[in-house]
Write a structure and sequence with these properties.
445 residues; 13 strands; binds zinc ion; 9 helices
Length: 445
């Protein structure tokens, strides 16, 4: 730390760090950018990292995961928020007539894999977890009842009353098949809508487009739920109105039908029959209104929040587990550990190889994307980022750091190579102080 502070290029280093916005694990790049005049071939401007501190440029890691880098995850969250909101009320290239399109907020849940400790509230009062009079005892000698009123931060929340009765296999198979279930759900929903409009599935795209934005949320018990905004558009997306027959009343019925109709099958394994997995019976469908109890801000905030989280909130790891790792070293809670070991056990079976459960054990079997949108939902994260970069470019030109060129008269040649990641311990302390961010755990250093 003292060495860094005393270096002649400390100010430049500090400026790089401020530009990363407090990124906890910046990427180090080595390289150059040269601007040439297309007509004369003259070199107009050259930037090289050779004169930068340590000969590298530090840029933000851009992760979406708050557990890895809170600063970059915050940028991702804010972008996701803007994007979801634009799809609900317009903006960022989406016309505001989109507010007239039938739009719902949907939650698809996982089924039960055994009773877990839960916090229930009724009329503002916390209720007993699972109070059963004369409760039976399970084959493992545990009483199938819990009369405790759990606090919000009780680590037992989401954990089974009896881990030996809990269906760990079902839980990880559900996570593994959830992306397929979603795909089948969307297909079935399109079929149901086509039927409602008296059309064939093939004809549907010429009349109606199903637009959605969805996010996966891990429940404390370690299974994924999907929350989604579902919107009905005309054939060209949000710029065209949906057909008159596609109303706010058509959509819930079609969703209910589709959610019940679909299933995914896990192949036979370990002498067990093939297993059919479906959505849980809890299906929540709510209208999104500008001034009702579920506003567009609430929905956008909700989806954006979960987009930066992963399974680590269940107490598992936020990185892949390698064959050389010993799980004991990670200090996992019993439930997370059982879910992970179930993934590793099933992942070793050739019958289930396709589910790649070993690779995704740290995600408790889920290998889908956390946050996805259909093509025409609204703008994209890429466009939002490009808009921000254009803004930064204009700023740099006005502040004299970059000469102002006519874009098409200039040839830009850039060469970059990856030169590392993160901070030394001393740099991490200084960076945290400079950007007012929190220091990560020892694994970040
Ligand atoms: Zn970062
Ligand atoms: Zn309990
Ligand atoms: Zn039991």
């Amino acid at each position: 730390m003292i060495k860094r502070l005393n270096r002649h290029d400390y100010d430049r280093w500090a400026s790089q760090i401020r530009h990363t916005g407090g990124c906890r694990q910046p990427i180090h790049l080595r390289g150059k950018v040269e601007h040439y005049d297309r007509a004369t071939g003259a070199l107009l401007h050259r930037y090289t990292t050779r004169h930068e501190p340590d000969g590298v440029l530090r840029v933000p890691c851009k992760t979406r995961r708050a557990s890895r880098c809170p600063a970059c995850a915050e940028t991702y969250r804010a972008d996701t928020y803007q994007l979801i909101r634009a799809g609900l009320i317009g903006g960022k290239g989406v016309p505001d007539t989109v507010t007239t399109h039938p739009t719902l907020f949907l939650t698809l849940t996982a089924p039960s894999f055994g009773t877990v400790h839960a916090r229930r509230e009724h009329g503002g009062k916390v209720q007993p977890c699972h109070a059963r009079r004369n409760a039976e005892t399970c084959p493992h000698g545990r009483v199938k009842s819990c009369t405790e009123r759990h606090s919000k931060d009780d680590p037992r929340l989401g954990e089974p009353l009896c881990p030996d009765c809990y269906d760990y296999t079902g839980s990880v198979l559900f996570n593994a098949l959830a992306p397929l279930l979603w795909k089948r759900f969307a297909d079935s929903l399109r079929r149901a809508l086509a039927k409602a409009g008296g059309l064939t599935l093939k004809d549907l795209p010429r009349h109606l487009r199903l637009s959605f934005a969805k996010v996966a949320e891990y429940q404390r018990r370690g299974v994924v739920h999907f929350h989604a905004v579902i919107r009905l558009d005309g054939p060209d997306g949000p710029t065209t109105p949906p057909p008159a027959w596609a109303t706010t009343d058509t959509l819930p019925a079609a969703i209910q039908h589709a959610a019940k109709a679909v299933s995914a099958t896990a192949p036979t394994h370990e002498g067990q029959p093939a297993r059919i997995l479906r959505w849980g019976t809890q299906l929540d469908i709510r209208p999104i209104t500008l001034n009702g109890d579920l506003t567009e801000q609430a929905v956008a905030g909700y989806i954006a929040k979960y987009a930066t989280k992963a399974a680590e909130c269940v107490g598992t790891l936020d990185r892949r587990i390698h064959s050389t790792d010993t799980l004991d070293a990670f200090n996992l809670r019993d439930h997370a550990r059982r879910l992970i070991t179930t993934c590793l056990r099933l992942g070793a079976l050739p019958e289930l190889a396709e589910l790649r459960l070993t690779d995704w054990a740290h995600m408790l079997g889920f290998r889908g994307h956390f946050s996805t949108r259909s093509r025409r939902y609204s703008t994209t994260l890429g466009e939002l980022r490009a808009a921000r970069e254009r803004f930064v470019h204009t700023e740099e030109v006005t502040h004299g750091r970059l000469p102002l060129f006519e874009e098409d008269t200039v040839l830009v040649i850039s060469e970059w190579e990856y030169a590392g990641k993160g901070h030394s311990l001393g740099d991490a302390l200084l960076a945290a102080a400079l950007t007012g961010t929190q220091l990560g755990g020892p694994h970040d250093l």
